[in-house]
C-alpha cells in the first residue's frame, strides 16, 4: 500500500518512517502493554478501548476510530494519524514525539499531563479540546477548529497557531512566550496580561487583545 509523504511544517520534525511500510500482520487490538511498530493500519475500530502503557512506533493509522478511548502512559513515536476519529478520547500522561495528525476529529478530546514534542495538527476539528497541564514543544496547529478549546495549565512556549479558529478558547494560566497566534481568529479569547507576555501577535490582534483586556483603544486628541 503506497504511503503518502508527511506534510512538512516549519520548525516541526516530521515522523521518521521507513520508505516502505506494509499492512500490519496481526490484528490491531490494543490492550495494556501492547506494542505496534512499522506498519500501516487502516480502518481499525478502537472506540471506547481502555488501555495503559501502549507503545506505537513508526506507525501509520488511517481512518482509525478511537472515539471515547482512554489511554494512559501511552508513547507514540514517529506516528502519522490520517483522518482518525478521537472525539471524546482521554489521553492521560501520554508522550507524543514526531507525530502528525492530518484531518483528525478531536472534538471534546482530552490531553492531560501530556508531553508533545514535534507534533503537527493539520486541518483538525478540535472544538472543546482540553489540553491541560501539558508541555508542548515544537508544536504547530494549522487550519484547525479550536473554538472553545482549553489549554489551562499548559506550557505553550513557541507553539504556532496558524489560520486557526481560537474563538472563545481558554488560554488562562498558560505560558505563551514565543507562541505565534498570527493569522488565527481570537474573538472572545479568554486570556490575561500575564499569559500574553512574549506572545507573538499581529497589529490587528494586538488591538483586539487590548479590547479583550478591557482597554479602550482610541486615537490621540490630535488624531494620531
Give structural notes.
Helix content is 6%, strand content 29%. It contains two helices and twelve strands, in the order ββββββββββββαα. The protein has helices at residues 193-196, 203-212, and strands at residues 35-42, 50-52, 55-62, 70-72, 75-82, 90-92, 95-102, 110-112, 115-122, 130-132, 135-142, 160-162. The protein has a seven-stranded parallel β-sheet with strand order 1-3-5-7-9-11-12, with no helix packed on it. It has a five-stranded parallel β-sheet with strand order 2-4-6-8-10, with no helix packed on it.
In a nutshell, what does this entry contain?
With about 220 residues, the chain is mostly beta strands.
Number of DSSP strands? 12
CATH third-tier fold name of the domain at 107-216: Pectate Lyase C-like
CATH class of the domain at 107-216: Mainly Beta
CATH architectural type of the domain at 107-216: 3 Solenoid
- Helical percent range? under 10%
> What order do the helices and strands follow?
EEEEEEEEEEEEHH
Shape: elongated
The number of helical elements comes to 2
Proportion of residues in β-strands: 25-35%
Instruction: State the major sheet.
Output: 7 strands, parallel
Keywords for this structure?
224 residues, mainly beta, Pectate Lyase C-like, five-stranded parallel sheet, 2 helices, 12 strands, 6% helix, elongated
